[in-house]
Amino acid sequence: MGQDMYVNMDEFLPLRDVVFKTLRQAILKGELKPGERLMEIHLANKLGVSRTPIREAIRMLELEGLVIMIPRRGAEVAQITEKNMKDVLEVRKSLDALSVQLACERITEEEKVALKAAKEAFEKATETKDVTVIAAADVKFHDIIIEAAGNAKLTQMINNLAEQMYRYRFEYLKDVSGHERIIKEHQEIYDSIMNADVEGALAASGKHIDNQETSIIRQLKLDIVR
Amino acid sequence: MGQDMYVNMDEFLPLRDVVFKTLRQAILKGELKPGERLMEIHLANKLGVSRTPIREAIRMLELEGLVIMIPRRGAEVAQITEKNMKDVLEVRKSLDALSVQLACERITEEEKVALKAAKEAFEKATETKDVTVIAAADVKFHDIIIEAAGNAKLTQMINNLAEQMYRYRFEYLKDVSGHERIIKEHQEIYDSIMNADVEGALAASGKHIDNQETSIIRQLKLDIVR
DNA sequence: AATGTGCAATTTGAATACAAAATGAGTACA
DNA sequence: TGTACTCATTTTGTATTCAAATTGCACATT
Lengths: 226, 226
Fold this sequence. Notes:
2 copies of one chain form a homodimer. Chain A has 226 residues and is mostly helical. Chain A has 2 domains: 15-77, Arc Repressor Mutant, subunit A (Orthogonal Bundle), CATH 1.10.10; 82-225, GntR ligand-binding domain-like (Four Helix Bundle (Hemerythrin (Met), subunit A), Up-down Bundle). Chain A is built from 9 helices and 3 strands; from the N terminus they run αβααββαααααα. Chain A has a 3-stranded antiparallel β-sheet with strand order 1-3-2. The interface between A and B is medium-sized, with 32 and 32 residues. The structure holds a DNA duplex (30 and 30 nucleotides).
């Protein structure tokens, strides 16, 4: 009775959610390229399911903006244009600003401890030179700040935006020469939040995004030429 | 040849989109109440379609956060809590600020003309005492500003947020005594944008949302008690 | 050679069919 | 009287079937 009655529900996800995650990953990692058609029967065979969960997953991807629908022709992977990415970054910057501002006001003592740990973990991670590890540590640092902002809607929206930059952010973190600067920026953001210095936090966070923007746009241009 | 070759495509929307819009409207207008179950066969019969488009529409509503899924039990209309709405308004305020700021920098001459017309149309609309007309005029005014910001992602996100406040905003505009203040606030926003006065525009827009927030939260509380 | 036409193949859109799980009413039994 | 259990009903999850539209190609026509 007092026992844990919940099993890990993640293992019993409906097929549509499995398909959704699979396709999203494929798009974000670039395995499915912009413009590529997503044909239902083809995908169904490939993933070993019927068309129904494929269709439902496509509806979700459509609403996230990762695929576009052409009537009577089906779905294809959305094109990522420079304008498109600039728009995303512009909004992202604004929401990140809100996020650090709210974090300054609302962060708890536990979160402060966690943020310090995450900051230090990121510094350690850069020493590994393993991009996957570094990226995960970076995500963790920012996740704590977003959580500290205490706004579920904001969390959801930032995560959605982050998703659209996923592939390029990866490239950004690959560049070892940039790590030192990122560490310094994290330190500035961290210090500002700890001192509830809203102005400082906004400045530091803005600079942080601007640097990413430069890198992402450069990557994107390379990608388009390719 | 020189003729208009496009037919009104809206009339040939896939059923899933028709169902999606129908259900969304029903939820936002309060016809489908929070907690109410959305049973597929029932909805299918009611709308005269099969389960397939119903399911696809539910997937979209789920991603918009208007319904929540309970495994093996189906969808139900999401609860609107005060915290939830405050979160939405907090983000909305931030994005509106970005929107007026960008509009100050990017608005074209044509858009300036349109904005003036929309401002005056709203003033005229308040005289009709017809809430539908007033709401439409208000939307038009704000739409022009958002368009002038020239950021498609921002447009999409603000529209999504606006949707979640739909029902309460309607109540806000019903209150005739508030019209004069709204007109004054529109005038301030308009003037600031015309003079590319970013500071002024931010202040005016912030005040505008704050007033709405007060009204919406009050409405929401009444709604919950009901 | 260029353009138009018709037909077959492919693919989406929608409906229906089938399988599995959850719910709830009714009944047996302590 | 109350509790547990069975079984029919309901509902979701998934697969399959059917209809309609689009596309591309072959062929005819100018």
